[in-house]
Design brief:
Elements lengths: L1 H8 L25 H10 L6 H5 L5 E10 L2 E6 L2 E7 L2 E2 L14 H12 L3 E6 L11 E7 L2 E2 H7 L4 E2 L10 H14 L10 E2 L2 E2 L8 H15 L13 E2 L11 E6 L2 E5 L13 E3 L2 H6 L3 E2 L2
Parallel strand pairs: 3-6, 13-15
Antiparallel strand pairs: 1-2, 1-5, 2-3, 4-8, 5-6, 6-7, 9-10, 11-14, 12-13, 12-14
Length: 294
């Protein structure tokens, strides 16, 4: 039940210069490069300059990523146990919330987090006093390869600065500068006026956009509180997903206002899709009345 609560809690939190920078041992920015400039410079470095060695240049403790939950939440191996970490000072759109469902640009933020951190070693600069949020998640600034994950999400327009609550405001001015650049370029969540607001995200203003259409089935499903029909799992090669809606790497079947759709493990929305049926093959999914995701 506790694990499910962490996942359902999604991006919500109760947390007490532009571009992404590397940090020295004091926590001060060592560079004012943009994320793209840093990426280019990183390619010029010797190949043995690993992300792990870069992480030594930033403050905090080391942890290994076990699972990326969404754009601003990860599960890590820390102090001998699996701990859920909520990133400080940012908020990405939801992908797992039981009431809000999947919000526009939530899958993109989640996919980018997977790209950055899947199986990686990260550094956690813990909240002052080792703070936790109301869901029991450890609050921290997160770094991978010597870069701030918060800043990288902000720079792409996949996150907004949020939950600015003392004493954990160390990088708020820097984050706001990065956010301002994404706003100016109308990236991601800033592409439509008033989608991202101080009180959260407002999918209704995104209607008619590609980002809204991509998640409209999930939004409808969450608003209605139930799926349009119960999928068949009695066909050969079909089985029931676990309590978190996962299929252990098999094909995921999802039922929504868009119909019965199956997602292959290689599909972009596979990891953020909550399955209502699992299939061992495309044939089994088709026999159960599901079509491939477009």
């Amino acid at each position: 039940m506790i694990t499910s609560l962490f996942v359902f809690a999604g991006c919500e939190a109760d947390q007490s210069g532009s571009g992404s920078a590397s940090y020295d041992s004091s926590g001060k920015a060592a560079s004012s490069y943009t994320p793209d400039q840093q990426s280019a410079d990183h390619k010029k470095q010797p190949q043995n300059q690993t992300a792990q060695s870069n992480n030594r240049n930033v403050p905090g403790v080391t942890a290994r990523v076990i699972k990326v939950v969404d754009g601003d939440t990860i599960d890590v191996s820390y102090l001998g146990k699996v701990t859920t970490v909520r990133m400080l000072l940012i908020d990405t759109p939801e992908t797992h919330h039981p009431r809000l469902g999947v919000q526009p640009y939530g899958p993109e933020a989640s996919r980018y987090a997977h790209q950055l951190m899947d199986g990686k070693t990260v550094r956690l600069e813990l909240a002052e006093n080792g703070g936790h949020d109301k869901y029991g998640r450890l609050l921290a600034y997160v770094y991978v390869g010597g870069k701030s994950v918060e800043e990288l999400q902000l720079a792409r327009g996949f996150a907004r600065v949020a939950y600015v609550i003392p004493p954990n405001t160390k990088y708020v001015d820097r984050y706001r500068a990065v956010e301002a650049q994404a706003k100016k370029k109308k990236l991601g969540i800033w592409s439509v006026n008033d989608y991202a607001q101080d009180d959260g995200y407002h999918p209704e203003v995104m209607k008619g956009t590609k980002a809204y259409r991509e998640v409209s089935g999930y939004i409808h499903s969450s608003e209605s509180g139930s799926s349009t029909e119960t999928p068949k799992t009695n066909v050969s090669g079909a089985f029931t997903p676990d309590s978190s809606g996962n299929c252990a790497g098999a094909i995921k079947g999802n039922v929504s206002a868009r119909g019965k759709i199956y997602h292959m493990p290689s599909d972009p929305y596979y990891k953020v899709t909550r399955a209502e049926a699992c299939f061992k093959s495309r044939k089994a999914a088709a026999q159960a009345g599901f079509r491939a995701a477009k």
